[in-house]
Amino acid sequence: MNQDINVKKVRINCFRQSKVPGYFMLQMRVPGGFIDAKYLSVIEHIAKTWGDGNFHFGTRQTFDITGIAYENIPAVNEYLEAYIKEIDAQDCEVDMNMISHEPAEWDPQSGYPTIGARNITACIGNYHCICGNCNTFELAKKIEPIIFPSHYHIKINIAGCPNDCNKAHLCDFGIIGVARMVYHPERCIGCGACVRACEKGSTRVLKLNENTGKIEKDACCCIGCGECVKACPASAWTRQPEKFYRVILGGRTGRQTPRTGKMFLNWATEDVVLSVLKNWQKFSAWVMDYKPEYLHGGHLIDRAGYKKFKEIILEGVELNPECLVAEDMFWQETEYRSNFNVKPLEMHHHAGPQD
After folding, report:
1. Among 196, 314, 316, 325, which is least packed, fewest CB within 10 Å?
2. CATH code: domain of residue 233
3. Within 13 Å and on the Cβ side, how many CA atoms surround 123?
């Protein structure tokens, strides 16, 4: 296959280069990792018609269809028109004619206009999980039109509870569903089940008062997990109806400087989370002088510094009374430094048959 391929341009179109020259992998977006099962036929058709017959569940909950020849990309994009319109434009109310918050005429048969704002990932949340404090899919759908399409890169993970099954601590902007608990002493039978659950699986903030037979709570360290609600046989603990979220900032994987994110907001309402994310494009553009690069959010925060980030990202945001904001933030990165006297790799050459 003798042809020049602009790999960067193809990547923006959500096709990733493979080890085999001229072949690519399509990353089909699945916002929140949740769609109607009818779309499995779409994946099957693409994989069998233009791919190698296989697909991979991407680490960002995309459908990754492998083995697509470069010359077949236009046909795949044309076929994707209906899927993109239904999933992104209709279900998530994304305006495909606005890229990076600027007007742009999108050709419906040209596939995805950008890979910048990555597919928002989410755990199953309270749609199914007994631990879930929020509907992760619905939140993802509300966030998508704020950040997509855009050439500014951001990775967002949503976890339905502090178990953080979806690794909100390892992305640019992690969102964790938390709940504020209400104690109903008149229902409490003093069994201590909630105390034991908190001791075993959470932050050990509950204790049983032996004199009153009722529960006492050190509210300062409650993380809003809801383990007490699950454990109580008498419904003496319930979740407040209003949903709250914890926002984790600046986590990342990678070869050079992987790190765990830090708490930015705690007990934030959905409105606050959405308002903060509406400032993400403005912050990214400011840091990069309106010239998008392939850099994710954590690196941009490092460039600007946390104080400047906080100034821009909270501009115009009306915080709910319960919301707490980190005064400062210090990340601890993994440093790859050796204390051993190791010779260069080329010196560790073992004689073999070829010698």
Report:
1. 316
2. 3.30.70.20
3. 24
